[in-house]
Predict the structure.
Amino acid sequence: MVKIKTKEEIEKMKIAGKLTAEVLEMIKNYMHPGITTQEIDKICHDYIIHKQKAIPACLGYKGFPKSTCISINNVVCHGIPNKEKIKNGDIVNVDISVIKNGYHGDSSKMFIIGDVKKKYKDLCKSTKKSLYIAIRLIKPGIKISKIGENIQKYIFKKNFSIVEDYCGHGIGKKFHEDPQILHYKNNSQITILKEGMTFTIEPMINFGKKEVYCCKDGWTVKTKDKSYSAQYEHTILVTKYGCKILTIRKEENINKILMNKK
Ligand code: MF3
Ligand code: CO
């Protein structure tokens, strides 16, 4: 069952989304070679708890041990922050989820660390673009399957692959709720978008093949062929005539995104 959020719930979702975006803006200044992923995690954790007076949604979620997911290079998602240092040439996803007043925000982006090969910069850029392409479609009345269909059309042209094992999700009082948002072409998603729905779109795009596996730690997801992987995620609200990106950052120009110029 897909929930339609009330006005009051939407106000809370906007606040949670804004805080989530602000964590990603804050951490930008620390994303340099030599910092460990657990140091990045601690900075985010302390910022969320002490500055935002909010809760990191990942911490303790189904037993996840840290406050953020940090996924480097061939790690697709759900990387557990640890002693590993990020280094020159890495592409790093930081995935932030914040709970405020009982409501969730969820967003992630890639950080390009120093001199990254052009082909991996292109992977990141195309992944971001595929998210924007999906966002531009969102309005009441369209089928959810349009999202995956259009992401796939763009990504396959670029000769990258789309991870099928993880998807976007409804979000609100619960971290993960209905509907599921698939990022590839499918016929199963008959649900029609309605004003007041909130969900994430979070395509995971691989440089090589789409196959992934989950490591023994129960969380870290890697590409089977060891190719690099990128992900961008936003939390979206369906509005009367389109949508609002609840986790938009200052560096993103919403008009350019919606006008197909970014
Ligand atoms: N932030 C992830 C998502 O986009 C969820 C991670 S679950 C965690 O849905 F437990 F690993 F944090
Ligand atoms: Co998510």
User: Anything to note?
Assistant: The chain has a mean pLDDT of 97. The pocket of cobalt (II) ion (ligand 2) is lined by residues 106, 169, 200, 202, 233 (CB under 6 Å).
